[in-house]
Amino acid sequence: MSHPTHDRHPDPSANALTHGLTARRPLCDEERQRMEVLVASWTSKDMPETPPEEALIASAAIEYVRYLRCVDAEEAHLKPAARLALRDWRERKQHAVRRRAQDLPKDPASVIADLHETAFGIDWMLRHWRMLQTLIASGQGWTSPDLTMAMHLLGQAPLRPAPDDSSDSAHLWSDARLAYFPTAGTPSGPDARSRLLALVTATITRLETLRPLVWDDLDRPEAEAIEVASLVDTTKDGQLRHRYRRDAFRDFHKSLNALTRLRSERSKNDAREQKMMQTSHTHHAERPAYVPPPPDSRNEPPPAPESSPEDRRNPQLASEIRNPSPDASSSPDPRTLGRTDGRTETARPASEAPSPPSGRPIDAPRGPNAPLDRS
């Protein structure tokens, strides 16, 4: 007998039909309109130039609509839980205030100080003060328990104050006694009731001003913490919804990243092609047919610079440079006479002896042992 096998991993199509969190198609006309608006808006803003870019924009819109669907599903399940958590928290705070107020007759000063530290305690005091105000305004008046409660709400015991006491509790006691508990021979008057009503009204106004300040400082942070803690769904269905929302958000970013990469590559290719076309056009238009090698090329020696006739060492032409024959009438160079006489005297004949230059006698040759002429 064969037993049916159970798949451990649920089919996404089954999940799409069950709760619609994995469906990539609109589930209602509202989602279809939202998707069409997103596609039209993103297309007009991003201006796709190729079909792949249009497909990626449509894919991003689909994933974003699915992400919003998951967010709505989570809020639909978590908002009631948050409301229930806040309601339970308020009930606990109110119950703690009522239990604390039970000790009011024993220690009114300490209990009233504790009630002022929380907005729920101020609400409890306001409720009792308004009840006492209504009794005065309606003309019913106070009874002995009402006077005792009023003294307790001021943090005082229901006792006659000292004659020199000028506190609110002393004024309340005297005005209440004159208005509703007159002694023999002392009639009650409307002035005492007016002063008592004004005192109760001023106390209510002060508490109403204090209440939002205490709520913002003490109770609001606690309420927000309770609400945030209630938004964490640790059940199996809650974790599944969270995973679907995370997957939709991840797929949405994948489509955007793919669109960005595609556009970046396309812009790089366009810039590369444009640069190549500009380079080719410049090469064919501006470069001449033949470019001579530079002067410092190794294959060709550098050309000699053109020189002017003034730069030459000998301005005469090569054909004009000759050794002229010595002239008999020219006199020899006087710089060489003294050095060449001794070497040429014996070789020359007497008829060819050189004539002495005018104005200078010729010294006779001397041997190595000849005396020096001291004249």
Describe the structure.
Helix 2 packs across helix 3 and helix 5 packs antiparallel against helix 8 (190-230). The longest helix has 51 residues, at 51-101. Residues 1-14 have low confidence and may be disordered. The protein has helices at 12-18, 29-46, 51-101, 108-115, 119-138, 144-153, 168-180, 190-230, 236-286, 337-344. It is an all-alpha fold.
Poorly predicted runs: 1-14
- Please give the count of helices: 10
- Report the β-strand fraction as a percent range: under 5%
Order of helices and strands: HHHHHHHHHH
Form type: elongated
Provide the structure class: mainly alpha
Total strands: the figure is 0
Overall pLDDT confidence: 74
Helix content: 55-70%
Give the N-terminus to C-terminus distance in angstroms.
162 Å
Nearest-angstrom radius of gyration? 61 Å
Largest sheet: none
Summarize the structure.
The protein is mostly helical. It has helices at residues 12-18, 29-46, 51-101, 108-115, 119-138, 144-153, 168-180, 190-230, 236-286, 337-344.
